[in-house]
Amino acid sequence: MFNNCRDPPSQILLLILTQLPPSFPLTNEYLHKKFNEFGDIKKILIFERGKTNKAFVEFYNLKSAISARKQLNGLNIQGGKMIIHYSRLKNLNLEIVDNSRGTDYTQASSNSQNSDSILHSKTDDNIRVNLTNHISQSSSSRANSSPVRNEEINRLLDYDDDDFDIWKQEIQLNLTDMHPEIQTLLRQKQSKLLRIASIDSKVTAKMIYNVFTKFGNIEEILYQKQLQKAYVKFQTINQAIIAKEYLNNTQFFDSILRIYFEPLQPLQPTSLQDEYMIYYNENCTQKIMPLSSNLIITGVQDPTEISELIKMFAKIKDIKIHVNSLQLSMCSIADTLKIMAVFSDYEFKNQKLNIILK
């Protein structure tokens, strides 16, 4: 079950549908049929960008949205997948232009509002949908100059603690009535210290470092292997936010990672089995890329031999062998994480391999 809860519960759900067959007719009517069984729907808006489709579904009440997300998150649709997040929008206004298709179910004539002309775009700036009370917007200059992936990372950093406090006041949740794990999630404050739970017993502290360092500079790691948990302290809060966003609830070997923000505290081993490491990253900068199933491995002396070794650890969809590098397309994100964990800085024939997310 996918359960990536990056935003507080909301009556508006954000759907991300990937790898749908080209022949699949994604329509408002299809989404309405899927989601209407959980409660009355107010509005639906679809906008499409290449191989990834995104849509908003707005319910009349919060309970319906929570129930729909719980039941449909991770749904397989003819080989494609639907991931559901809570949206940060407060209201959804439909103005059908460019990349958008929407239906307002509060109006009898709404079904005639579907757009006949859908333009496909590669930047967020081209999706001109008027969504009122949006908590944050990217500047037009950034949208015009940065690729979609950089916009995605910028979006992750827009959310702050003030937004969370406003949300709590508006919906007036009684936290004591909720499951303890839900209470923990809702009370989190952003921090540069992450707590990672449910770690597979095969994982080492070095593997944790190899994966998490792809999303920022790490200062400390405390790995309590007997408790199946670790603490990772980043150099900045933004780096911790990005790492948590991409790695929370992902499969890492045979376990699903659970990641939480932790208040800053000294990290100290409590047993002989604990692994504690300190890293020095002065004046060290790196280009952070979103988690992807596509990898490039450089520093390869014998590409054919190392490719056979890699195949022993993870499933590869496609591999391209170059003179001193490999280009890999993995079958899943879980396979990507395995390769990053095992082969980052792996010394092969006196040369260290370097893994780059593409």
Automatic annotation (TrEMBL):
PROSITE patterns assigned to the protein according to its UniProt record, in alphabetical order: RRM
Keyword RNA-binding attributed: yes
GO molecular function, one term: RNA binding
All copies of domain RRM, residue ranges: 13-89, 192-264
Keywords: RNA-binding
This protein's record includes keyword RNA-binding: yes
Name used for this protein in its record: RRM domain-containing protein
Organism per entry: Paramecium primaurelia
